[in-house]
Design goal:
Blueprint: H1 15-18, E1 21-29, H2 34-44, H3 46-49, E2 54-61, E3 68-75, H4 78-85, H5 88-97, E4 101-110, H6 124-129
Antiparallel strand pairs: 1-3, 1-4, 2-3
Protein name: Antibiotic biosynthesis monooxygenase
Pfam family, one: ABM
Keywords: Monooxygenase, Oxidoreductase
């Protein structure tokens, strides 16, 4: 089988050993449109998460900036994300969110480490006492 330019890395590829490729979008939403933005984002989210290289995404509303949201998505690797990013389906997805956005930016990163919670302390007081 010959690899093509649309070959997607399986979810068990490098993401299992080096961590996923992470994308974080910062979106400033037009005043008065945040509720509708959240509804549309949820309604069309599967157009991202159904992609075979997607490891999921999260929408978070900033607590220190009005009308600002962050969208964090994880991908198996950068080439697969870039293939998604330039797809017709993604462009359609972006067009549905565009009316809500006044400004935005994107940063990309490679997750290099993760420390999971140990679960060894049931309460804050227990955790403090364990010093």
């Amino acid at each position: 089988m010959t690899a093509t330019t649309d070959t997607i890395a399986p979810a068990t590829s490098d993401a299992a050993t080096t961590g996923p490729y992470r994308v974080m979008l910062r979106m400033e939403i037009r005043p008065g449109m945040t509720e509708d933005f959240e509804k549309v984002w949820l309604a069309i989210g599967d157009s991202v998460t159904s992609h075979p290289a997607s490891l999921g995404q999260t929408l978070a509303r900033a607590t220190d900036e009005e009308n600002v949201y962050y969208i964090v998505s994880d991908w198996t690797d950068e080439p697969s994300f870039r293939l998604f990013e330039t797809s017709d389906r993604h462009l359609e997805h972006r067009q549905q969110l565009h009316p809500f956005r006044s400004q935005g930016s994107m940063v990309t990163m490679q997750v290099t480490a993760r420390v999971d919670p140990s679960g060894e302390h049931a309460t804050h007081a227990d955790w403090e006492a364990a010093r």
